[in-house]
Amino acid sequence: MNFSLSKGQFFLLLFFIETGIIYISFQTPLISESKNKAWVLFIVATILHYLVLLFFERYYRYFYLNTFFQWVYKVYWFLMIATFLAYMVYVLASWVLPQTPEWIIILFIVALSLYGNISRPETVINIGVMFIPLIFIFIIFLMLAVPDLTWTNLLPLEFNNSKEIIQGLIRSVFAFMGAEMYLIYRPFLQKELTLNYKPILIYQLVIFVFYLISVMFSQMFFTIEEIKLVPEPIIYILKSQEVTFVKRLDIFFVYIWLSWSIITVLIFNLTIRVVHFGIGKKGSKKAIVFYHILLAIIPLFFVKFKVIETMKNSFHYIILIFTFLLPILIILWNKWRGKTCIEKQ
Amino acid sequence: MYRKAIIVLLVVLLAGCWDERLYKNSSVVSLAGIEGTMGEYKGYYAYPKTLDKQSQIMLIEAEGISPRDVRNNADLKVEQTLDLSELATLLISIDTVKEPLYDLLDIYFRDPQNPISIKVAVTEGSVKPFIELTKEVTDNAGGYYERFIESTEKNTIYPKLNLQMIGSTLFDNAKDIAIPYIKMDEEEHSAEAAGVALFSGQVFTGKILDPKQSFYMLLLMDKANQHARIQYMLKLNNEDVPVTGEVIHLKRKWIINEEMKKITMDFKIDVEIEEFSKNHLYKEETFKTIEEMFQQKIQADFEEVIKILQEQESDTLGIGRYIRAYHPKFFEEDWREQFASLTIEPKVKVTIIRTGILR
């Protein structure tokens, strides 16, 4: 696998990895668990995320994955994508396509991923650019809900319940799923480019504003008791808005989200490809096709309410391990041993 | 390459065939009504049908143990499946809302095809005559009540409300709702805006605020809409004179005294005189007298509405939300009971800022 990334491409990849799929759903568990202070805890989690990114930037050279950890991450990403595919199908079936067979939708998404992954890596890397205007359109639509927001829902801020605070922080971390891929793609950044705290801060601010809008809007639109019943609050907010040019704004956004999430799936699969085939090696198409056949079959077993609920109730812990704890441990271990991924090249 | 593209395209095009819904195959309902109690509901659905090149409103009636069951049974009586995706208004009988309201509304929130920005109103007695009425006056049954409610909202009689807002408030223990109430004018044989039905939590309190009380409740809520007209018969020089003023600006400030369990509500209301046949508003004395009389009358009406709300334990003003946010230690979980025991004192300051194009 041989390609190089500009700063823009690198941060765009990271943006799609971190925001795709979960953008519509992470608000519900966060607000349900941490109540009115959810938005403050999210700000704290964002600061922690920024510090982690700074740490990753400083020590990314030490993120060397041996064969064991390569397989650990490949299996982890595969299972993540499989469950996320199941979730995407579940959301589509609930909101837009209740009668369409699930396998058709999975086939459609996996076919696109297969196309993207047997093409040059640049196809997957650059495809996200097309969706940037759609994200702005989405924000504009969301602003239609401003008159319906109840500002007092953001208060009171009481920090005397440690369980709520810890749970809120852990659920906030869910928003930054996939941050470990910073370490995977960082070595591909063009050699002459350097990253210091400033571009990372700008990226962090963009993603922070994008997420904070969703958290605050969900909190102000729904009461805490109500949001427990609404698994996809952002889509629900859009459903309640009336516009003249389209009957259901939620459908419009579900398709934007679907396209956006498909890009996330493509990037996850590219990451597996990068880790599996290694830097500078050309991958076998047969392996990619076999992988996608598996990807088309496994999610079909997960498209059930109970599985989706279990996923929502446990994934934040898994993400905490694989996105933050394990990479930090691997970096510290390799730093102690003096082993770098650059050496591997 | 082309083969791959064709396969991808086919898959994309296939997704959607299963979920195609054409209006020509459905009875598109614009007005629905429900009455009865849990286990014995009765539903009404009005939809347009073209007979002899003329559009007519058809009415389907069905019974069932739940709102969904009613709809299923109604489906058995039509040649095309009922489609509620274009629903504009939902009417509910006053007797039905004595039970928890969410029981009726769950199907509207759960099914993504149901619009949640629709209007909701409570009717005096059965909803049937209200739905039948539309046959005579319009070809869009739901649109008729939607316009009816919206115009009353603009006159600050009904609160600006839709199904989603109602649902959201039902889950809030610090605020209650007041839903538009419609009664039938038997003589005129027309629907009439008759105020709002007060709720305490999920259930109707049994108290209706008449249009005038509803208007003052909306002023207390700081929700004056496009037209907010205050009208009194004032005694000037031993003569009864009708005076009408339009609220131009309203400023509200709540002062909470936690120790004394007292809330002082300061209102500054700027009005424009719209009707005063005796003129002479340029005379300082007349001007001041009207301002003071307005002030006293509005204050009395505010006090009357607050008293009713407290008696009914119905915090439609959202005082609970304010206290929960800014005075959390003062807020009790059983807010409605606490609301009823508070001392709430409105203080009104009226300023006439315009007198129309006459002095």
From TrEMBL, chain A:
| Annotated keywords | Germination, Membrane, Transmembrane, Transmembrane helix, Transport
- Which InterPro entries does the record cross-reference, listed alphabetically? Spore_GerAB
* Topological category with respect to the lipid bilayer: Multi-pass membrane protein
Q: Name one GO biological process term.
A: spore germination
Its transmembrane ranges are 12-32, 38-56, 76-97, 103-118, 125-145, 165-188, 200-222, 252-275, 287-308, 314-334
Q: Does the keyword Transmembrane helix apply?
A: yes
The principal location of this protein is membrane
Instruction: Report if keyword Aminoacyl-tRNA synthetase is assigned.
Output: no
Query: Where is coiled-coil annotated?
Result: none
Q: List the subcellular locations.
A: Membrane
- Can you supply one Gene Ontology CC term for this chain's record? membrane
The entry assigns this protein to a family as follows:
Belongs to the amino acid-polyamine-organocation (APC) superfamily. Spore germination protein (SGP) (TC 2.A.3.9) family.
Q: Please report the name of this protein according to its UniProt entry.
A: Spore gernimation protein
Q: Which organism is it from?
A: Lysinibacillus mangiferihumi
TrEMBL record, chain B:
Gene Ontology BP term (one): spore germination
One protein family per Pfam: Spore_GerAC
**Top-rank lineage group of the source organism:** Bacteria
Q: Where is the Spore germination GerAC-like C-terminal domain?
A: 195-356
Q: Does the keyword Lipoprotein apply?
A: yes
| InterPro entries the record matches | GerAC_N (IPR057336), Spore_GerAC-like (IPR008844), Spore_GerAC-like_C (IPR046953), Spore_GerAC_C_sf (IPR038501)
What UniProt keywords are attached to this protein's entry? Germination, Lipoprotein, Membrane, Palmitate, Signal
- Location (main, coarse): membrane
The topology of this chain with respect to the membrane is: Lipid-anchor
GO CC annotations? membrane
Q: Where in the cell is it found?
A: Membrane
| NCBIfam families documented for this protein | spore_ger_x_C
What the record says about family reads: Belongs to the GerABKC lipoprotein family.
Q: Any idea what this protein is called?
A: Ger(X)C family spore germination protein
